[in-house]
Each structure stands twice: as structure tokens, then as C-alpha cells.
Amino acid sequence: MKKTLTSLLCAAVSLTLLSLACGEGNPPQVPQPLEDGGVLWTECSPEGAAEDCSQGESCRFIASYDRYLCVRACDPQAACEHPDAVCCPSADTDGEGGSCVPNGGCAPADAGTDDAGTDGGSTEETDGGDPEDGGSTPDDGGTIEEDAGTEPDAGTEPDAGTEPDAGTEPDAGTDAGTDGGSETDTDAGTDAGSDAGHTNIRVMASNLSSGNYQSYDPGHGIRLIKGVDPDIVLMQEFNYGNDSATDIRSLVDQIAPGFHYSRETGAQIPNGVISRWPIIESGQWPDPRVSNRDFAWARIDIPGPRDLWAVSVHLLTSSAGNRNGEAQAIVNEVRSQIPDDDYLIIGGDLNTDNFNESCFATFRQVVTTAGPHPADHNGNTGTNRNRNKPYDQILVDQDLRQYQQAVVIGSNTFPNGLVLDSRVYRPLSEIAPVQSGDSSASNMQHMGVVKDFLVPNF
């Protein structure tokens, strides 16, 4: 039932007095109850939730405050209505929902055990980032090999003279401007060079942020990308450090020194593209269903007469209908802007529950979506943390699909492409510096996806 203003004020006073009486260690202040079609949050008890909470709310234990509060449901992909609330993933919804809780009240169960102190604390998690397992599941079976302070190429200094101007337009200043011809040291089975008139192009879809701030700071995602030596990376949640031009340049150089990149501007969890070859044009198309990111595209000057357009996308978890609407918006932009003769890749985090979703039929207007699909050593095509949903994809047009080839890394061959899960990949030495626990790190909700193409230079 809806509470009166007097009841709301009493509830707020009760929360304050209880906190003082218990002598808690100064937890973040719980905002005053607000009237917004009901109380945003009020103290409650699980047994009396129906009486304590307003319609549309549920009673949830908030560990940071050591008490139960009435909270509203939310989409982990979108911010809560009130600025002092954050959408915290719910452990019992398989990553499909969350609750608006007081700022600072969303903390994973294993916080502090995963590269503690490396998150930077600069990016407030107002978007749940489509977490699987509620974003707070303890790491599986203690298999993570902790590695605080051992990020690859940690000592690589960015070239101050090649930093993009943070204030420039997305297709002007976000390209690193360095020579993309430099080779990485890791040999994961591709040399990206010309061979008898052809160029091998390894593409990776990467929503591989981890930790508490949807960032690559903890280093797990950096290792996973570096380990398979891609030529083009479709990045989601493209955050690092304070997200300055210097920080992003440092992230790219840790993955592949000297590579070019573009990254959308004005986004909380931006998409972007990293490329071995020069990015000659880039920008972003608006996402009609969410406000904290868009669709980032880059036109890449690969060897040969045809350019390659890479579109990095991150679709909503909220519903298949919303994802289909986003897919149609992308298709419309592709048809209006990309030449038919150029190659096209659309990839990243689609958040799709299965291959029968309507967005695949919509994407089929401009790219191929039919299987067989990439898989891991066990033939599993799932790319979420639980490995039961095809969240992440690399979809290409028919012109490029005809040149797809098996992904070969060391002694392993993946005929249809690779779903990279460090928990099952063997031997790990083939994808150094990857560690076995990287794919089960705190808030690592996705697996990387890799496809190879042997493209003619004529």
C-alpha cells in the first residue's frame, strides 16, 4: 500500500537511528524516501514485504547497509530513474533483471578478491552491463589464478605524440594515428600478412570487461584478447583507467602495440574498434532503445581494393523486441551508408537468448546469420558466463563469408570459429598470457568470439 508522507519521514528517521545505534562503519547515506508512484526505497522485512513495500517494489537485502530495503525492478542495461540509485543485477534472474538500489549498495559477493584496487573508481556503474549470474557469483571452484599487478605489457608507455584529442569528433581524433604495420609478439596462429595474394584477417568480438566498473582495468580481458592475436577487435564496454586519451591508448598498446582504434564519444559503456590496419573513417549511429551507448563503426583500409566496415554493437537484455528494434536501426544505417562492394562485419554483444530471435532475421538483410557457429573445444556455442546462450556474435556479409576459414591456434583447429573460454581451452600455453581463471573473473559475463578470413588482395 502507498505510505503517507509522515510514514515516509518516520521510515527515514528510523533508518538513520538504527545505523547510529548499531555503530556501523559509516556506510553510504541512504537517500531520503522519494515519492515516485511509490517509495523508491524504504526499510522492510521479507515476511512483511507486501505491507512494507509499495506496488512494483520488492524487499531485498542490501549487504552494504546490512538491512532489507524496498527496491524497484530495473533493466541492468539502463540507468535507474533517480540519480542516487544504481541498477544492481539480481542473482536469481540469470542476468535478465535487477533492482534499483542506493548508490554504493551494489557490490559483488567476491568483491575484493579480484585484483583489488585496480578498478580506478572513476566510472559509476549505472548500467548493469547485462551481467550473467547476477554479476555477483563467486568465481567457480577457486580456479582463478590471481595475478594482481601482472597485466601484460604493463610497462609499455604510450606515445604521447600520437594520442587522440579527447574533444574531437568520433571520426576524427579517435584513431591512434600510428603505423598499423607493427606486428605483435604473440603467435596464436595468424600472421595477418599477405600470402600468395591473400591476407589473413582474424576478427574478435570482445565484451570482456571485468571487475566492478565495466572496465578492462583488471587485465583479464586484455590477456584474453592478446592471447589470440586478433587483427580487428570489436570492443564493448571500452573503458580503461580514467578513460582519458592516454589511458585508452595504453589499453590498445597492451593488446597490440601500434594498432589503430576508434571509440564512440559521450557513452557510459562505449563501443569501439581496434585495427591492425588504418581506420580511414569512423563514427557512431544512435541506438534508439538506450541512452548510454550507440553503435560504433569504423571503415578500415585492409590490403586490396575493397575496404572493410566494422560495426561494434551492444544490444539490450530487456527483451527480444528491443533487440530487434536495435537490429533494424543498424540495418537502416548500413543500407544508407556502406557501399555494396565493401566488406561488412556486424559484431559484439547481441545479448540474444537463442538463434531463433527476430533480430537474426532482421540482420539477415545485410549479413549472413546461418550456422555453423563458433564453438569451444567441447562444441559449445554458448558465449555467456553459463555457456547456455549465444550472446556474442561476428556476423559478416556474403562477400566476406565466402572467405571464412578455420581458426588455427597451435595444435588446435576450430572449423567454424572459436568461442574462447579459458576454463576449457587446452593447452593454455598456446594462448599466453591467458590464465585459466580469466573467463570466470568477477563480472566477466561473456566469452570472446574469433573468426578468421583469408581475403584476396585483388
UniProtKB/TrEMBL annotation:
It comes from Corallococcus macrosporus DSM 14697. Gene3D superfamilies: Endonuclease/exonuclease/phosphatase (3.60.10.10). This is Endonuclease. InterPro entries: Endo/exonu/phosph_ase_sf, Endo/exonuclease/phosphatase. Keywords: Endonuclease, Hydrolase, Nuclease, Signal. It holds the Pfam family Exo_endo_phos. One of its GO terms (molecular function) is endonuclease activity. Residues 169-181 have a biased composition (Low complexity). Residues 223-410 form the Endonuclease/exonuclease/phosphatase domain. Residues 111-197, 370-389 are annotated as: Disordered. Residues 112-133, 142-168 have a biased composition (Acidic residues). Residues 1-21 form the signal peptide.
